[in-house]
Amino acid sequence: MRDEEVRSMYFKYFQEEQLPFIQCGKCGHKFFYPRVVCPKCGSSDIKIGLSEGLGKIFAMTRIYKKDGSYVVYGIVEMNEGFRMYANIVEENGNTADIGKKVKVIFREINGKKYPLFAVT
Ligand SMILES: [Zn+2]
C-alpha cells in the first residue's frame, strides 16, 4: 500500500462513519495515524482494522477563545489499544476529564465527515 491509498481508505471509512486504525502484521502494534510503515518496528506489513469507536480520555486540554468559549482537544485511548489525537465534545452536560469514557461521533465539515469524540 502507498501513503495516498491508506489516506483515501481512511477517508472512505469516515464517510461511512467508521473509525479505522492500522495494525502491524509483524509486531502487532496498533496505531491510528495513516502511514504505510509501522512506527514501532519499521515493517510495511500493515492491515487496516475498524474500531468499535469506544475509548477513554488519556490526556486533554481546553483551548479558550477571546469570547470565553473553548474547545477541548485530547488524546483518546481506544479500547483496541491505539491512541489518537482528537477534538472532544461535551454533550448533555457531560464534562471532559482524564479517564472519562468517550465514543466516536462524526461531524460534517464542508460536506465531509470527520471523527471526533463525545464524552459519555
Ligand atoms: Zn510493527
Q: Judging from the principal axes of the Cα atoms, what is the shape?
A: globular
Order of helices and strands: HEEEEEEEE
Q: How many H/I helices?
A: 1
Rounded radius of gyration (Å): 15 Å
Distance between the termini: 36 Å
Strand neighbour order, sheet with most strands: 4-5-6-8-7
Describe the biggest sheet? 5 strands, mixed, barrel
Regions with little confidence, pLDDT below 50 for 5+ residues: none
Mean pLDDT: 96
Work out the strand percent: over 45%
Structural class by sheet pairing and helices: mainly beta
Which ions, cofactors or small ligands are bound in this entry? zinc ion
Tell me the number of strands: 8
Provide a short characterization of the protein structure:
The chain has one helix and eight strands. The protein is mainly beta and 120 residues long.
Question: In words, what does this structure look like?
Answer:
This protein is mostly beta strands and 120 residues long. Helices cover 11% and strands 48% of the residues. The chain has one helix and eight strands, in the order αββββββββ. The chain has one helix at residues 3-15; strands at residues 19-24, 30-31, 46-51, 54-64, 70-78, 83-89, 101-109, 112-119. The longest helix has 13 residues, at 3-15. The relative contact order is 0.18. The structure holds zinc ion. Residues 24, 26-27, 29, 38, 40-41, 43 line the site of zinc ion.
